[in-house]
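Dear Dr. L.,

I hope this message finds you well. Following up on our conversation about the binding site, I have prepared a predicted three-dimensional model of the protein together with magnesium ion. For your records, I am including the exact sequence and ligand specification that went into the calculation, followed by the structure tokens. Please feel free to forward this to your student if that is useful.
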Amino acid sequence: MTAGPEGSRITPLFEATAIARRVTELAEEVTERIEGDFVVVGLLKGSFVFVADLVRALDAKGVTPRIEFLRLSSYGLAKESAGEVHLIGDIPTDIAGQRILLVDDIVDTGRSLAYARALMEQRGIGPLWTCALIDKPSRREVEIAADFVGFTVGNVFIAGYGIDYAEQYRHLPYIGAVE
Ligand code: IMP
Ligand code: MG
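The resulting structure of the complex is given below.
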């Protein structure tokens, strides 16, 4: 356990080795389903570690995607989302016709991924797939299912491996439950 903001505690849920194994499998699933070139579009900030590992796992399979990032508004310092998604940072506009793999850390209510997908689809892109390291299906408020999912969890607040609680814990190599 690690002490965090305001006495919060984090208990390991997915160790670094388990995450690495699953990321390798995800890269395999992606290469089996997506044929040809595609662009990885990561959602910041939460997906930065996942994207970094996923693209290297893809490289090991001979896949060399272009990499872009979208930045959406965050939770702020709370554990509950404000319910509204805003675009803070956009990708370059020259992605028309490209095949897109949208990558996020967590699908919770589904709002962020749905927003990002709609935004990409306004740009005349080719086919789009979605990938989330963590899925929380019991929390869904918008109907959306990621095409590729690393781990499914219940209604637990997690952090680590790029994912934060009040901007803490992103640096952890593992994912834990915040109490
Ligand atoms: P959604 O829009 O409600 O699906 O929320 C997605 C975003 O909320 C994720 O990309 C995370 O940044 C954040 N989020 C959702 N659940 C958690 C959690 O358990 N820990 C930290 N961030 C979370
Ligand atoms: Mg996020």
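In brief: The pocket of inosinic acid (ligand 1) is lined by residues 46, 75, 81, 104-112, 157-159, 163 (CB under 6 Å).

With kind regards,
A. P.
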